[in-house]
Amino acid sequence: MRAMNFKNFLLPLGAIVVMALAWRAAGWGGVALAGGAIVMFLLLHFNRAMQVLKRAAERPVGYVASAVMLNAKLKPGVTLMHVIAMTRALGELRSPKDEQPEHYRWTDGGGSYVDAIFNGGKLQSWTMTRPEAPADDEGSNSPAA
Fold first, then answer.
1. First vs last Cα of the chain: how many Å apart?
2. Which CATH architecture has domain 60-129?
């Protein structure tokens, strides 16, 4: 059995408590004010999500300017939406669709990439991989005599 996610019901419960307190403090006027504040909160979050997705839609899927910088900025527990906002690109889905945990990859122009694992929309772990540099064979680069 999956553990219950408390955030799924704390936000609506908090809204109900705010509405009840507003009713108790100021009647219908307080309810209208609290309701307006809750709607404004929801609209602000919806607007931010749309802006992040609009910016991500303008870039190639799975592309990031610098995989090294992305690797340095990632922290456990950040949301997928936060990572998309940082990279300004949707990650390339590497796991089967609608299956947990989700694996995403962001690659930069130099071939380095960051593989991120999200469980329940939160970053669980990540690894960065750099391409191997070609081995220089010192004997073959010497000038002919």
1. 75
2. 2-Layer Sandwich (3.30)
